[in-house]
Structure formats: C-alpha cells, structure tokens
Write a structure and sequence with these properties.
The complex is a heterodimer. By secondary structure, chain A is mainly α. Chain A contains 13 helices and no strands. The longest helix of chain A has 38 residues, at 211-248. In chain B, helix 1 (2-24) crosses helix 3. By secondary structure, chain B is mostly helical. Chain B starts with a helix and ends in a 7-residue tail after the last helix. Chain B is extended. Classes of the chains: A mainly alpha, B mainly alpha. The interface between A and B is large, with 108 and 73 residues.
Chain lengths: 249, 126
C-alpha cells in the first residue's frame, strides 16, 4: 500500500458503511450458493459459512468489528421488521393453531423453562461464572429479546447476541437429525421445537423443510420471546434463591 | 409501490410497539409487541393485504442473512469465549439438544392426548 491513491481509497472505504454492507451481502450470497450446491445440507448452513468468511476477512485486514458494523447494522436492523412480519405466516396458520392452542401453550412453557433452566444449570455445573450463566440463560430467544433479558439479569448483552446465533445454528444443523432419532414426524411438533430452541435461524431452516413447519416454528419463536421475557427473570431469581438456601444451610 | 407499502406498514407496527413498550415499561421487546398487534389486526380484518404479504415473505425468505452481522460479533468475544470455552460450548450444545428433544416430545404427546382423540370426528364448527 505504498501507492497513495490506493491508500486514500482504503481510508475512504474503511470509514464508509458501504464496504461492511456489501461484504455481508456478498459473503451471504456465496454461502447460500454453497448451501444449494450441497443440496441444502444443514452442515453447510449459510450463517456459519458467511460468518466464518467475514471474520476471516476482518481479521486478515485488521478491520475492527465496529467499522464492519457501520455497514452490517443495516442488515441487523431488519431483524425488527422481520419479527413483525412473522404475524403473517402466523395468521395464515390460525385455524390449525386454534385447534392446537392447548398443546402449544404447554410445550412452550415447558420448552422455555427447560431452555433457560438447563443452560444455567449446566453452565453452573461445569464451573462457568455467573456472568456466563446469565448470558446463556436467554440463548434460545430471538436476538433482540435475549439481549434485553441478559442485560436485566446480569449477563453481557453483546456476548448473549453471539450465543443466540450459535444456539440457532446448532439447532438448525442438528434439528432434523434429532427429530428423526426420537421419531417425531409431525411437522407441527418439529416446528414448535425448532422455534422454541433455535428461534429465527431454526425457523429459517424449518421453512426450507416445509411451509407448515416454518409457520409453527415462527409461531413458537414469537410466543417463546414473550414467554422468555416473562418467565426467565423469575426463574433466575428462583434458582439463585435455591442455591443460596443450599449453601447457607 | 406495493412492496413499499408493506414494508412501511411493518415499520409502523414496529414503531408503535417500541413506543408502547417504553411508555408502559413492559419487559417485552417492541418488535414482538408489534407482531402481536399486526396479528390481531389481520384477525380483525379477516385477510392479509397483498402488500404486507409480499413484504413479509421477502423478509422471511432470507431470515438467516439478518443474523450474520450479530454472528460476526463473535470476534469481539473471542477472549471471553476462549477463557470459559468448556462451560460455554457444552452448556450451549447440551441445553439446545435437551430443549429441542423435550419440546418436540411434549408437543407430540400433548397434541395426541388433547387433540388427537377428537381428530377422527367431524369438525364441530366451534
């Protein structure tokens, strides 16, 4: 980079959101093509491949995350309207939902409690710090919800955002295989489980399996965002109370 | 124009959701409340307008893309994750598997018990 012209261009690009935004879309485009090439193999999940590519480029060029996010935020912002947009598939599945409201409610409450309880419990058993336990607790909820809850209960919101994405990827990659093993064949049950455990990334995967699984996954993701916001702070208090009781006696 | 109307409507619902959440100080995120309000609106109207349908499928068909910038944020937390990688990876992996398996089984069993028994009959129009 001895050429002053090139250097000027780099200075311009690294300060402008254009580069981060374009990089995100190009990386995702490549990752998506790879995903189609592998005949939608869940292991080639486009989120994984594009995140790996982007981190690689940023680390190699020594670009800080904040500079990248100047552009990345435009894509990130769309998570908000996308959450609102889930009302549409939900509405389209309304008749099916009305038949199933009781099982859906039971599964959601159990699922959300298991998701938060097991991640706090396991992290605690494995010697994770309180901060890590609290950052993990809301990991199955969609990113904006999880970050808000994490902040509330004493976790690190930005770490939670990352854990949410890793959780979603784990669910999307393992989901269909797991359902085969436990012989759950019903698309409504699979969709609900996917949405509760793996939020939007799981929902994206579910829509590829079938529209019905996608709609129920979207429904579960939306409702479990509600349930997580209401139940998890309370569950954390309860677990901390139990731990303090057992350690003081 | 249709698409633009749709996306505008989604943003209006998100905005109303965000404002309501802040005014009432409820622990639910604005977009989630916006989604509930849009859902109720669609129920009352009895149909989803073409424009909202278009905007919604456009956003939802590439839902994975929207998580990419947050995922790249992993690079900021490398050190923290490296420090406690055993509890983080194991708790995350096992808890996700447990949640998924348990929820799927609970949903399958409860829908068989509670709804399955009625499915053989004619729909009773309730």
């Amino acid at each position: 980079m001895t050429d002053p012209g090139l250097k000027d261009i780099w200075v311009y690009l690294s300060a402008s959101p254009l580069l981060g935004l374009t990089m995100t879309l190009v990386a995702y485009g490549l990752a998506y093509r790879l995903y189609l090439r592998t005949r939608s193999n869940p292991l080639a999940n486009p989120v994984v491949t594009s995140v790996v590519m982007l981190i690689g480029v940023l680390v190699l060029t020594g670009t800080p995350y904040n500079d990248y996010f100047e552009g990345g935020q435009f894509v990130h912002f769309l998570l908000g309207p996308a959450t609102v947009a889930l009302a549409v598939p939900l509405y389209q599945q309304f008749t099916r939902l009305r038949q199933l409201w009781l099982p859906v409610t039971i599964s959601l409450v159990c699922g959300v409690t298991i998701a938060a309880g097991s991640s706090i419990g396991l992290a605690w058993l494995l010697g994770g710090s309180t901060e890590i336990q609290m950052s993990l607790a809301p990991k199955s909820a969609t990113a904006p919800v999880a970050m808000g809850i994490s902040e509330k209960i004493g976790g690190l919101p930005s770490l939670t955002a990352v854990l949410v994405v890793i959780t979603g990827i784990t669910g999307a990659v393992l989901g269909t295989k797991l359902f085969e093993w436990i012989r759950v064949t019903d698309d409504t049950a699979r969709g609900i489980a996917m949405g509760v455990a793996a939020h939007g990334i799981g929902t994206a995967r579910a829509f590829q399996v079938s529209p019905q699984m996608g709609a129920f996954s979207g429904l579960a993701m939306a409702l479990s965002a509600f349930a997580t916001a209401l139940l998890v702070p309370w569950l954390v208090d309860l677990m901390q109370f139990l731990v303090s009781q057992s350690s003081s006696s | 124009m249709n698409f633009l109307n749709g996306i505008t409507l989604l943003l209006v619902y998100q905005l109303v959701g965000e404002v309501t959440v802040r005014l009432l100080d409820v622990p639910i995120p604005g977009p989630v409340l916006g989604m509930v309000m849009l859902f109720v609106t669609l129920l009352i109207r009895g149909q989803a307008p073409e424009s909202v349908d278009q905007a919604s499928s456009a956003l939802l068909s590439h839902l994975s893309l929207l998580f990419v910038p947050a995922g790249v944020g992993m690079m900021v937390h490398f050190d923290r994750i490296a420090e406690e990688w055993v509890p983080i990876t194991l708790a995350l992996l096992l808890s996700t598997i447990i949640t998924m398996v348990a929820t799927a089984l609970i949903m399958q069993l409860t829908s068989r018990w509670l709804v399955g028994a009625r499915q053989g009959k004619e729909p009773d129009g309730d």
